[in-house]
Write a structure and sequence with these properties.
859 residues; alpha+beta; 10-stranded mixed β-sheet; 24 strands; globular; MacB_PCD; ABC3_permease_C; membrane; Macrolide_Exporter_MacB
Amino acid sequence: MTVLKTSMRNFLAHKGRMALSAVAVLLSVAFVCGTLVFTDTMSTTFDKLFAATSSDVTVSAKGASDTGETTSDNGKPPVLPASVLDEVRGADGVKSAEGTVFSTSVTVVDGDKDSLSPTSGGPTIVGSWNGNDARTMKITDGAAPKGPEQVMVDADTADKHDLTLGDEIAVINVVGTHTAKVSGIADFTVTNPGAAIFYLDTKTAQQVLVGESGVYTNVNVTAAAGVSDAQLKKNVAAELGGGFKVQTAEETAEANQKDVEGFMSVMKYAMLGFAGIAFLVGIFLIINTFSMLVAQRTREIGLMRAIGSSRKQVNRSVLAEALLLGVFGSILGVGAGIGLAVGLMKLMGSMGMQLSTDDLTVAWTTPALGLLLGVVVTVLAAYLPARRAGKISPMAALRDAGTPADVKAGRIRGLIGLALTGAGGFALYLAGAADKAADGSLWLGLGVVLSLIGFVVVGPVLAGGVVRVLGAVLLRAFGPVGRMAERNALRNPRRTGATGAALMIGLALVACLSVVGSSMVASATDELDKTVGTDFIIQSDSGQLITPQAVQAVKSAPAVDRVTEYKWTQADFTTPDGKTLKDTAITAADPTYATDLRVETVAGKLGDAYRPDSMSVHEDFAKDHGISIGSKIDVAFEDGSTGALTVRAITSSEAVVDAGAMYTSIDTLATYVPADRMPLDMLLFVSAKDGQVDAAYTALKDSLHDYPQYTVRDQTDYKEALKDQIGQLLNMIYGLLALAIVVAILGVVNTLALSVVERTREIGLMRAIGLSRRQLRRMIRMESVVIALFGALLGLGLGMGWGATAQQLLALEGLKVLEIPWPTITGVFIGSAFVGLFAALIPAFRAGRMNVLNAIATE
């Protein structure tokens, strides 16, 4: 009880200093809990949606996916004949059955040819209005579609694009372009996770989406009273025989859930990873806080020991304070995490993915995990200062002599840090020298961990040299004030090292990712310059295949010399070594592709692969299966027949563009795949007539005006798009790393604030002999800047080392250009100085307000 009272008194006596540490715990716990609540809520939302939209039993074509997605290579959904509907209705236990048609291989535009597809990445669905949809949609304006001239749209899409009754929209797909006017607007009775949905009547949907009447993509079956879904499935399957996919509502919902689980898992664990980084940075803040509080209470601890307190009691007292801090910060963090989850839901709503707070899911494990993490991390971080406090002898404490073992412990720490750093550096060297990326990645991970720990441990040793250099470059110009700031930073190297290390971790990751991102862009740009021999590349950024109508529009554009079509399909390969490889990718292109993409070959000529019944394979594939020029491979094409193709070329496996591709000609593909099942083009490569590049660029954009889903890019545009994609990813990562940097800034603030309290008497004496308030504040600001720049130098240097090593591994995959983004590195370094200035504002202001006489009288 005495220990608890003492801990509570000390905790409240330093509540201002504890508050900053509590904020670090709060932020870290909030990020963890917010991530868990957000992803659990998304899971609940999708569960409700899939449960509500699934009929008791669904019948679909054998080629359809489990989720009902319709992304056939030929642009049409797999369908069922109308006779299936009659057979299903005749099965035992069927109350009702309804045929429906829908497709996701569509683009929908308004009257101005602007896309109505979601920007959040959700699907665009065009389907027939049916009873199953009527259970989850409520018509709020107008009426359901009747006839080919009418279409109904969901309310979210209508609101986003200002659609009203009577507005004209167009549905574009492989069948053609169909225009209709909005006859009704329907609102979701469940949460819309971001899809854009358009409804036609059944006959119109069949013609628009498939191009023929009397077919369905699905048959939705409702069970009679007392018949379970499992029994109904069994009855329907028995009635139909083989060749169809029959699923219960539960199976359909599970398949849909699995489809979104991958995305949610990546997002969840990525965000938790950044929360872990913030926790790691927060450990340094807590260690520094308790180390300085213990140092300031040295005499008090000595008195406690002198009157009978044991080492364990002193240790427990400090740990009890940490426990209070952890509990307080974690409780606030759990609440803040729920608020963060709501904020993320609102953010997703602005992007088109509507998540209702009615579905907010807070599992009991979330606050429990948040409290556990916050308390455990805080107590563990306070263990070293607590142990150090317990070791202080009463006599040494009473005469302010400190601990004699500090110098010896510092030397041991330095040796351990150098050993760890050396081991980390050697592991990074082995990673860079690896022959295989998989082997090198293991060494890279080990090198990152060891070098990071090594720099943290050796930080106090490095602080002396680095701070002196920074002082000589930056502080000497400020005369005595600058020299005092330098000496203050050097006064306690352990404290400076720990404070700098907190900032170092976040900046090391920023530098590493900047180097990797810049190198990827530079490598890809270099590879494009070397290999791509065409003027323009046409593709859909949303992954839509290119319809024959769009291909014809491109070929008809003025100033165009040639158009190379590029298709992708799957086939079963039977190789000369007798092995059968299922669902292997094969690329079919026009013969001019050998000119448009300069692919290096190790045997034969790529152009020969486009001869009749010929193909190419890549080098690794050839080695694995004993293939050489002239070898024959039996290729069983998806949706087609089998042909014996002769290998005419073996391409290098080190290619970056189209890495690992195996080629054949479109004419060869057409020999074995029926015309109505031929896959659509993924890309078009277009070359302009001599001297007419600008005219062709304009003509191509004009020709695709009616097809806004496709983008025309020249090589400059393509490089910029690649740079933007990587830049957006990096910006998102930097945003998440900002949490760790914010916690590091709190650490600098806390260290300076406690340092000011620790030097109260000294500050009073300096003021008494003539140091002005402005000079005092400047001294503290400079000290803060030096500490921040010390952490930045370590972090940026370490991160660039990690990034350069990672690039060496990427070079094994063809990304051979190392590029250091000096503008980014310089900007981060300069920004660190401003971080130091910002962190010093409050401590410097408080120091300047000290009463001189009271400060001198302080013990």
